[in-house]
Amino acid sequence: MKKILSLIIIVIAFSSCETDVKFSDPGFQGRKDNFVWRADDASATILDGQLTITAYRGLETVVLSVPAPTVAITKNNPVTFELATVEGTSTANYNYSDQGTAFNYVTGYDDFEGEGIGNGQVLINELDFVNKRVSGQFKFNVKYDGESEIVAENVNFQEGAFYHVPLQ
């Protein structure tokens, strides 16, 4: 009787254990200043020759913009874009609001100085026009575009990835 009771208790104990797994499909995440940053929502659009991927998390927004590829991209033929090397073609923006004040961080090209602002890279390893989705990786350093002296001068995203972000 003791063996049966012990066996029943063990079976109940193991059957009550469960694993909660949360899948991010689609997903957009990275390490922002060495802390995990995961978007609540992400989408992608192609407009005027630019592929723009936008991710939202609360009052924070990340926008990646690169020239739109005209053919499908697979893992066998990925395309890499360098940020802030040529005016207006490949950029990253990070924006957030704090108590009603908006703060904007950017990459880009300074015509006056003749150099890039910030830096980074976007790798597209899937652009599927049939299923309307895009996947890839990113990393970037964006510079503060404003006059406040109480905010960080730059923000760093590393180990970034986006997976099956819907293309609208």
Tag the structure with descriptive keywords:
single chain; 168 residues; mainly beta; eleven-stranded antiparallel β-sheet; 1 helix; 9% helix; globular
As a percent range, the share of strand residues is over 45%
H/E element order = HEEEEEEEEEEEEE
Shape: globular
Low-confidence stretches: none
Gyration radius, in Å: 21 Å
Mean pLDDT: 86
Helical content (DSSP H or I, runs of 4+) = under 10%
Total number of domains: 1
Tally of DSSP helical segments:
1
Largest sheet: 11 strands, antiparallel
Structural class: mainly beta
Number of strands: 13
Oligomer: single chain
In short:
By secondary structure, the protein is mainly beta. It contains one helix and 13 strands, in the order αβββββββββββββ. The longest helix has 15 residues, at 2-16.
Task: Tell me what you see in this structure.
A hairpin with a 2-residue loop joins strand 1 and strand 2. With 168 residues, the chain is mostly beta strands. The chain has one helix at 2-16; strands spanning 27-32, 35-38, 41-47, 50-57, 60-67, 79-83, 91-98, 101-106, 108-110, 115-117, 119-128, 133-144, 154-166. The protein has one domain (31-166). The radius of gyration is 21 Å and the shape is globular.
Lay out the secondary structure.
Layout (H helix, E strand, L loop, with lengths): L1 H15 L10 E6 L2 E4 L2 E7 L2 E8 L2 E8 L11 E5 L7 E8 L2 E6 L1 E3 L4 E3 L1 E10 L4 E12 L9 E13 L2
Antiparallel strand pairs: 1-2, 1-13, 3-4, 4-5, 5-7, 6-11, 7-8, 8-12, 9-10, 11-12, 12-13
